[in-house]
Amino acid sequence: MTETPVSTAPRTPSAVEWLHDWSEAMVRARAERKPVLVDVYQDDCYGCDKLDAVTFSDKRVIHAIRTRFIPLKLDLHQDREFTREHQVFWTPTILFVDRSGKVRYTSPNYLPPDEFLDLLDIAEALVLMRWRGYEEAIALLAGLEYRSPNSVLMPEAIYWRGIAAYFRDGKSSSSANAEWAELLSRFPDTIWAKRVP
Q1: CA 22 to chain centroid
Q2: Domain range for residue 167?
Q3: How does pLDDT run across 106-132, given as a tens digit for each residue?
């Protein structure tokens, strides 16, 4: 009888391993210097179920969350202190919280995996910018453009890339304008283009 060899390759996780305690998530966020991805859900919520079944079961999304974020799932009704403080009234709502406990980006409702991956890049970039990680934020947003050049979230990514360049270069409007020129050229009819000063 031959034995089946045991693989030494790392296993790809089959699910996001959610925390359910705010305090525990914040301790890990500070220790690991990662943002917290908070999924606020409730029972009998079609969007919540779809997010779990489709997006949070996608291997790319699982990998991105596990390597870049501290995942926290909170119930809209059971975790009232958090949901009241952050005025969450719709589910699902995804919040991105920095290691100091401040919400830096919010996204309501379901998104499919491709768009959710783009959202992760934008949200992480905004967290990084609050900690002066402008170069890292620009790299994330440029990576989004490389991976998803026609994403519905691309105009927002370019807009924030301009903001990151502005601060990276000592509040240089020419740095922001260089980034925003692409936004104005490629996506002139979007709300993000209209926000360019």
Answers
A1: 18
A2: 132-197
A3: 999 999 999 999 999 999 999 999 999
The answer to whether the beta carbons of residues 160 and 126 sit under 8 Å apart is yes
Domain presence at residue 31: yes
Helix (H) or strand (E) holding 100: none
CB burial string 168-179: b at 16+ within 10 A, e below: beeeeeebbeeb
Tokens of 88: 């969450």
Strand order through the sheet with 36-41: 70-75, 36-41, 93-97, 103-108
* CATH code for position 186: 1.25.40.10
Nearest to 35 by CA among 60, 58, 82, 67: 67
Amino acid occupying residue 99 = R
Asked if residue 139 and residue 106 are part of one domain, the reply reads no
Q: What is the pLDDT of residue 187?
A: 97
* Stretch 73-79: mean pLDDT: 97
Number of domains in the chain: 2
What is the rounded CA–CA span in Å between residue 29 and residue 36?
6
64 plus 18 within the same structural domain: yes
How high is the pLDDT of residue 14?
Answer: 67
